Input
Amino acid sequence: MGAEASPAARGGAFIAVAAALFARRELRARHPLIDLGLFRNTPYVLVTGTGTVTNMGYAVTVFVSTPYLQQVRGLSPLEAGVVFLAPAALVALSGPLGARLSGHMRPVSVMALAGALAGTGMIVLSLATAWWLYVPVFAWCGLGLGLGWTFAGVATQQVVSPERAGEASGVLLTFLVTLGGVALAAAASAITAMLPERSPDAAYDAILRCGGAVILAASAVVLVVRHRLADAAEIGEVPPTGSPRSAGARAHGGGAGSRPSHGRRLP
Output
């Protein structure tokens, strides 16, 4: 990597290399810290991926909105803090909402819904100018982004077997914290690169739209894969190793040709 590479790019390259070396070491270890077979559990991968992306969006939205409200909108720190109460309140409500939704929707579907709310909210937020629209949309963002990263912890417990719950939670937390920091560094570098040619508000809006588009794309992928999982279950294919359904199938002697019961929830 050349000398002109940004610190964020160098940091991203370091993380990628370190992750590759860690995976190589785990594959060869007699007693690995993480059984990489966890990533063959497709619902878990979907939940972790969506939770990570929405958490990155949450970090970037808070980071971008802080200077936007004060430098572009001209608010004082106290006034900006008052505006932040709207998304903060919805983030707080997202936890109980996720618990309620989990009783009526499958975990992967809840994550896709969170991504759809978050992605559309970020894009609309970049277009809103009137206060009567900006504040409700800001709250809307808080609901979607908050639901994404808070419910991810609950969802992982529902799509893995009980004996792997602790491992699954640890991996999820690692992704949330690490890639959340990477997203902040990337957003800061992108804004710095755009400011000489664009106004601050245009740069902030571009970051929000880009983040929203990424989250919407991730939600679309989740829905497509979720649909294929449902189709596979209908024709009797074996669910991913480590999922509650696969454990149940083994306990009841179900094989590759057994059909799921109508009362059993899909991931």
User: Anything to note?
Assistant: The chain has a mean pLDDT of 84. Helices lie at 7-28, 42-72, 77-101, 107-127, 131-159, 165-194, 200-234, 244-251. The CA atoms of residues 60 and 187 lie 7 Å apart.
